[in-house]
Amino acid sequence: MSVSIYDIAKIAGVSPSTVSRALEDHPRIGAATRKRIQELAREMNYVPSTVAKSLATNKTWTIGMVLATISDPFMGRVIEGVEQKALEASFNVFISTSQNDRQREIAVIETLQKRRVDGIIVIASHLFERTPRFFERSKVPIVIINEQNPGKNMHFVAVDDVHGARLAVEHLISLGHRRIGYVSITNRPQSNQHRFKGYQEALEAAGIAVDPALIFSSHAIENHVKIGEASLEPLLAAGASAVFCYNDTAAIGLLAACHQQGIAVPGDLSIIGFDDIDMAAYVMPPLTTIRQPRFELGHKAMQMMLALLNGEEPDNQILPAELVVRKTTAALVNTGSDVNSK
Questions:
Q1: For every residue of 137-160, which 3-state class applies, written as one string?
Q2: Whole-model pTM?
């Protein structure tokens, strides 16, 4: 049978309220009494009732977390960041997925609200383009990771996508590349728009015209690896000597296609990704990329959530990205052809 505070109170010879306060380290209970009751609770294997705690505080001590998909390798470290901070504050995290579907995301968020979670953290939401007011009607605080559209009841933590993309393209330009492709991911509209903007800004700052033939986009393909694979032929046909991919997953797909077609990387084609997922350092050759502080994104999102639950109004945060140079980018080799000097 489970042990209650009444059982502890009976053995300790104090009131149940004294036990409750002692277990919560209440300053009104003397240090010696607190220590004796806490030791007794451990000896009796006392487990606090979350239901009783919820009734007493009007909190469920739970945070709902909504992911676009659990298969995205970007998500793991972000989740770890959220969970570490949540556990420090005695919160549990419930994870649900939207499977990249707007209607399912709405249904998941509404279900979490019905289950009376204290707050919701969403990664890579699909709702902003069509239903931005949905978040303003939320009954609980919402923190968004990697989308930058603040609303009435919404706050965000994001990486600086524009600056990160500029770092990627500036790196390629510094290596002598001028025919630089971009692999676009259409099911990430907001962040894709920001990264494309950084791509454009870096080219324009170097006096290089943006060529639509070097922009690969596919609405027919959802899988990011497949998008990377499919981009190789049209980008080579357009004379690309280097490619900036929306994320590492697409870059790894492009790298695989190069291997299958006998295209040397970085000898024939330089490739750079975005995210710095764990696999990026282990593909062959190791992928040059833009590192997102994934753990920090999750940690700061949960920190922001705790502030909101405490009645505070925290500022939205945009974190810097970092260039990580590995082995998939190299200086442009002058072959005597004018293809890469257009």
A1: CCCCCEEEECCCCCECCEEEEEEC
A2: 0.80
